[in-house]
Specification:
The chain has 144 residues and is of the alpha+beta class. It is 28% helix and 44% strand. It is built from 3 helices and 8 strands; from the N terminus they run E-H-H-E-E-E-E-E-E-H-E. A hairpin with a 1-residue loop joins strand 6 and strand 7.
């Protein structure tokens, strides 16, 4: 498993950020997939999305300070993928995304290593598009 993280500070209230975040918007902000279906079961939300030559199904859970989501087994490019997006306020609002993933299979170490930069870029794009949507340019980006 590889881990990637990205963080941004936004000069807007936490409540505004939380209103902008939903399972569908998180997928759209990342810019890799277009949402094709959203199914809400109360406890979880399942998002089906398609991209160029690839589709995925993600299961989201609302958390106290954001969302966690996982690719449903066999329903996307990863063998396993878990991501958490958190929103905290202490003056500015800090939005952090942490993703653990593996492509699995033969040569997974190499595939994961090459995929790390792509996944990192996807998380940074998610945060940038969130900031642009909120008309709140990031005051700082912390790439861990």
């Amino acid at each position: 498993m590889r881990t990637v993280e990205a963080t941004v500070l936004l000069e807007i209230p936490r409540a505004e950020v939380e209103r902008a975040l939903s399972p569908a918007s998180i997928v759209e902000y990342a810019g890799t997939y277009d949402v094709t279906e959203v199914t809400d079961s109360g406890e979880t939300t399942v998002v089906t999305a398609t991209g160029e030559n690839v589709a995925t199904t993600l299961e989201f859970r609302k958390q106290k300070n954001g969302y966690s989501y996982t690719q449903i087994d066999g329903e996307g490019p990863f063998e396993e993928m878990h991501t958490r997006i958190t929103v905290r306020e202490n003056g500015d609002t800090r939005v952090s995304v942490r993703s653990e993933f593996t492509f699995g299979g033969r040569f997974s170490f190499l595939k994961d290593w090459f995929g790390k930069d792509l996944r990192k870029t996807e998380l940074q794009r998610l945060l940038t598009n969130l900031a642009l949507d909120l008309d709140a340019p990031p005051s700082e980006t912390d790439e861990e």
